[in-house]
Amino acid sequence: MPDLPDPLAALRFPVQYIEVTESLVRSRHGRVADVRQRCDLPPEGDAEAVAWIDGHQLMASVAMAVEHCLPDEPASVQILRHFPLTAHGTLGVFAITSGTVAEALDVALQYHALVMPLFDMRRQPDSAEGVHVRVVPTVDVGVHNALMAELVIGVLRNVAPYTTLSDPVLHAEFAHTSDWPAQAYADFFGAPPRFGSPWHGFTVPRALLDAPLITGNRATRASLEAQLQREAPGSAQAKPLTQRVRQLVLSGLRKGVLPGGEDLAHTLAMSARTLSRHLQDEGQSLSTIVEQVRIERAEQLLRDGELSVQAIAQHTGFADASSFSRAFKRATGQTPAEQRSRLKLSGGRR
Predict the structure, then answer these.
(1) CA nearest 8: which of 117, 108, 153, 155?
(2) Domain CATH code at residue 244
C-alpha cells in the first residue's frame, strides 16, 4: 500500500513564526537557541538561513511555546502577546499599510493562505453588526487544533496598535470548548469569546471597519501588493481568485441574484474557460465555491432566525424548500431545522 501524503510537510509558513516562540521563550528566561534546534533549523544569522518552514517545523515551534506558557491563563493568550502582525512577513506589513481596518481585512482574506494554509477564511454576508468571517480548518493538527484556531483568529486583534481606536473589540467564536472561562480571554480580545459555537469564526464590528490605520501608506502598499502577487501564482497555497469569486457570489445573493459562471467571468474580465482553469490552479471549482457560499449564506439566515426555511431557500437560489433541505443536509449533515435548533442552544445571534 502506498504511503499516504503528508499534508503538513507540503505546507509552507513564514520563518518569522519561529520568532514568536523565541520571543516567548526569551521572556521566560529559557534557552532561545533551543527553538531553532527543536525545529531543525540553522541558528539565527547562519549563512543557510531559510525564509519558509514546513508544517512540522511550525508545530514543533508551537509545542515549544506551549511548554513555556505559565499555568495562570490560556496558552493562546500568552503566545498572542508575542505575535505581532508583522510576523506574517510581507502580508503582515502589507495589511498595516492599508488605509482602514476594512481594507486590511480584505487583504488578509485574499492572501491569508500564503502564510496560514491550516485554515480557510470565508467571508459571510455582512450585517448591521459588521463583517462575519468563518474560519474552517483544512488540516488536522491533533492536540493543537483548538490552540491553532484561537491563535489564527486572535492574532487579528493585534491590529489594535495600528488603529486610532483606544480599545477595539474582536468578537470571536470557537467550535471547541475551553477549560478556561471565556472571561479569561476578554482582556485580549476586548470581549469574551463564545465557545461551543457551531463553527470557528469572528466578527469585526462596523465601528472598527472604518477606523484608519496610522501606518497606512498608498505607495508602500502598492509595492507590497505587487510583491505578494508575484509570490501568489508560485504557491499552491494561495487562493486569491477563490476569495474574489466568493465575494462576488455573496454580493449577488445579497441582491437576490445567484450569478452564473459567465456573469462572474465577465466581472473578472476573463472568459468562463479561463476562470475555470485559474480556479483549478487553486484547487477549486466554480460549482464547489457557489455551493459553499449558498450553504453558508443559509446558515447565516438560519442564525438570524427571522425567515422560514422556504424563504431561506429562495434567498439562496434554490428552487424550493425540499431541494434546499437536501443540499443543506448533504453539506452539513443536518437539516435546516436541526441546525436552527443547535444555533439556538449555542446562543443564536451575538
Answers:
(1) 117
(2) 1.10.10.60
Bridge pairing between strands 171-174 and 200-205:
antiparallel
Cβ atoms within 10 Å, residue 322: 12
Spatial contact of 198 and 245, defined as CB atoms under 8 Å apart = no
Judgement on whether residues 98 and 138 belong to the same structural domain of the protein: yes
pLDDT single digits (tens) 127-180 = 788 899 999 998 899 999 999 999 999 999 888 889 888 777 889 999 999 999
CA dist list (Å): 16 to 87, 92, 203, 250, 278: 5, 11, 27, 34, 30
Judgement on whether residues 154 and 278 belong to the same structural domain of the protein: no
Compute how many other C-beta atoms are within 10 angstroms of the C-beta atom of residue 41: 19
Phi, psi torsion values for 317, nearest 5 degrees:
85, 15
Tally the residues of the chain: 350
Which domain covers residue 117, as residue numbers? 71-238
CA atoms within 13 A on the CB side of 302: 27
pLDDT in tens, 176-199: 999 999 999 999 999 999 999 988
Q: Which residues contact 135 (CB under 8 A, 6 or more apart)?
A: 119, 120, 121, 122, 149, 152, 153, 199, 200, 201, 202
What is the separation, in whole angstroms, between the first and last Cα of the chain? 49
Same domain? 229 vs 87? yes
Cell of 188: 485580549
